[in-house]
Every structure is written in C-alpha cells, then in structure tokens.
Design goal:
Blueprint (H helix, E strand, L loop, with lengths): L26 H25 L19 H23 L10 H31 L11 H5 L6 H35 L1
Length: 192
Amino acid sequence: MSTSWKTARIRRSSGSPASPGFTAPPDALRKLGYATFAWVVVFAAFHVYWGFGGQFGFGDASNTVPDVRTAADWAYTVVIGIMFVVGALIPFATFQPWGRKVPTWMILTCSWTGFALLAIRGFSGLLDSGLRESGLMKNGLTGLTYEQVLGDAHPTAYTLWSSSGVDLYFFIGGVLFGLTAIGHRRAVRNAR
C-alpha cells in the first residue's frame, strides 16, 4: 500500500507515532498555499468594497460596477461568491490535515480551473489594452469602444493604468493557482 503525504502519520521527536495526522508537505507548497489564499482574500475584499460603491482600482471611470437587477444577475453573483469560498479553501487543502479528505482530482480540477479563468481573463485584458493603446486594433480584442467598456470615450491615463493593474492582478491569481496545482501534484506524486 502506497502512502502519500496526505495519509501518512507524523512521527514525534520521541519516535512514537502521532495521533492521526500527516507528514507535512513541502515548505514551498505551504508558502504557495498561503500566498494564493492571501491573493483570494484581497480579491474578495476588493469585490465587497466595489459592491458597496468603492472606486479604487477603477481610476476615474464612470462605468465600473454592473447593476444586479435580474435573477440571472443574482445567480451570477451567487456563483462568483461560491467561487471565492472554494478559491479560498483550495490552497489550504493542499497542505492542511483536513485537506487529505479532499480527493486529489478535486483539488487539481479547482486549481486548474482557477488558473484558466484568472490567467485568461488577466492576459486577455492586458492584450486588449495593449492592442488599443498601440493602435493595432482600435477597439481591442472585444471590438468594444472605451466608452462601452469604461463609460468614457477618452479615459484618463489613471483609468487606463488602473484597468491594467486589475488585469495584472487577475493574471497573478491565475499564475498562483497554476503553481498551486503543480506543487500539489508533485507533492502527491513524490510521496508515493
């Protein structure tokens, strides 16, 4: 029977086996889990702040937070809220004792999904802005004007930099979730 770090027992310094626990995963995975969790907490906090009308991170754009009016809007908001909760738990599941009860495939699926959604959203936003500002594509990847996206036909540099900062934050989150998936898979594989 193969033992992984998720199911092995910790040995006390006296050499006697500890009560049910597990061998600690690599320190790098623990640090990465905390970094990813911190990213999610800041991300969620900004969404709550924006939900209450906060403007920081949007520059001086007038069209910042979409209205939640229909049942579909509320359903979308609830799904995003669930994703925040799952996104906060998954990094811890990679190295906490309770995480050994979560199937590896589930942790990897959630981590890779977070990677894909966040990295693609962030990178496409950065690419869209780059194409607009370079003049290669007047309306970027989306085909939408600045007025349709930001609410202003001629956004200030402050708004454009803020928008790029948000896009970069999405991309960093994607990278963190991708690294978490890789680290978790390696830790499980190396423990076999």
